[in-house]
Amino acid sequence: MYDYDYPASPTLKGLQVNMVEDAIRLGVGHAALNLNLPTIMRPERTDSTIAFTSGGRQYYFDGEYLEKFDRRVKELSDHGIVVNLILLNSRRWDGVEIHPQMEKALLHPDYNPEGFISAFNVVTEEGRRHYRAFVEFVAARYTRPDAMYGRACGYIIGNEVDSGWIWCNAGEKTVDEYVREYEQAMRIAFEAARSVYARARVYVSLDHMWNIPYREEPTRYYRGRDILEKLASLSRAGGDFEWAVAYHPYPEDLARASFWDDQTALDSFDTPRITFKNLGVLSRYLDQPHLQYAGRRRRIILSEQGFHSDENEESERIQAAAYAYAYWIVERTPGIDAFILHAHVDNRDEFGLNLGLWRRDKQSLSRNAPGSPKPIYEVFRDVDGPRREEIFRQARAVIGADKWR
Looking at residue 212, what is its pLDDT? Predict the structure, then answer.
């Protein structure tokens, strides 16, 4: 087992990175990269697979894909950037389809294709074996002391699991049934990662829906607060382990950057949503003794959130101000290790949202080829440097001193 200090950064500033060199120029301290199980796991040995032993059995991973992925991880971590991997289970990702022979083992047996991403298969013995092997392989590859392939020691298990029907689909489940399975996915990942690296971290992924679900369909969508409470209860019952929280405090309306006007973000544990406006609620909530681990608040990262801009100058000014104000709030909220912005570049396929630091090049066939930087680019670059107070003053002028708390 490896054991060394967990990677750290002097800045909260993070990004879901598309362009590694640009991220380095921007002074990013944290990054989040997606890694999809069916994209890399293969049913048998070939000339291009990497063999890995788990539980006395051999499993195979796509060496060609991983070689490219390694370069991204290594270039980031070699520049002191703390890399987190978002572990996903999608039938198709990054242009790669699941291998037909792997569907039964990898996809959740009750997965409904209406969902973009399947929950991990912790229901069958074969599913659990393959999932454990995946996490062990990832940890073994990216926590080596020599960082041969780059270093990534934090693992976010699934995506926005409270909106499970879309982002972590396990079929129709009551919240108790759903969290019971998800707790097993978290526990297996924790045990697998910690068997390789003694300080590996695993995170539950939640969106900004706190006391309301995304939709009133109780076997498809859940309240974030319920997920946390039930996860904590189950983890204590089975022997508590050191899971952490990856939260997404998007504005109330994803198409409106001005989170300071959110009406459903209240300074109360009973708030419908937790956004940047009331971010302190999350920190205080997790500081309750029954949610702590070993007497300490569980770690928090903000692993995905962003601010939309319409294609006009005023909207882009508000986007830039929103990021600056959010950064100011995060700095003053106890217990948050990272603020990882989404996205690096506007994405044509992202439901009409323009969340990037860069406008996309509309002449390109790519869905997110960079065009030109927006005003938020300069704010992002300089928010943790000598210009920080100037940036906050400018943002306060855009937002209004009466709304800057």
Answer: 98
Closest CA to 46 of 56, 36, 58, 55: 58
DSSP 1-36: -B--PPP--S--EEE--S-HHHHHHTT--EEEEEEE
* CB-CB contact of 370 with 358 (8 Å): yes
Task: Report CA-CA distances (Å) from 189 to 111, 184, 192.
Answer: 20, 8, 5
- In angstroms, the CA 349 to CA 360 distance is 11
Contact assessment for residue 265 and residue 252, using Cβ atoms and an 8 Å cutoff: yes
Count of other CB atoms within 10 angstroms of residue 25: 10
User: Percent helix, strand, coil in the chain (nearest 5)?
Assistant: 35, 20, 45
- What pLDDT score does 64 carry? 97
- The string of pLDDT tens digits covering residues 268-320 is 999 999 999 999 999 999 999 999 999 999 999 999 999 999 999 999 999 99
| Domains in the chain with CATH codes | 13-247 (3.20.20)
pLDDT digits (tens, 9 = 90+) for 170-194: 999 999 999 999 999 999 999 999 9
Question: How many C-alpha atoms does 390 have within 13 Å on its Cβ side?
Answer: 7
Structure tokens at 51: 């063999």
3-state secondary structure of 280: helix
Copy the structure tokens of residue 6: 């967990």
**295's tokens:** 């007497």
Give the DSSP H/E element, type plus range, for residue 245.
Answer: strand 243-247
Q: What is the chain's Cα-based Rg? A: 20
102 touches 41 (CB < 8 A): yes
According to the model, what pLDDT value does residue 358 have? 98
User: Facing residues of 2 across strands?
Assistant: 197
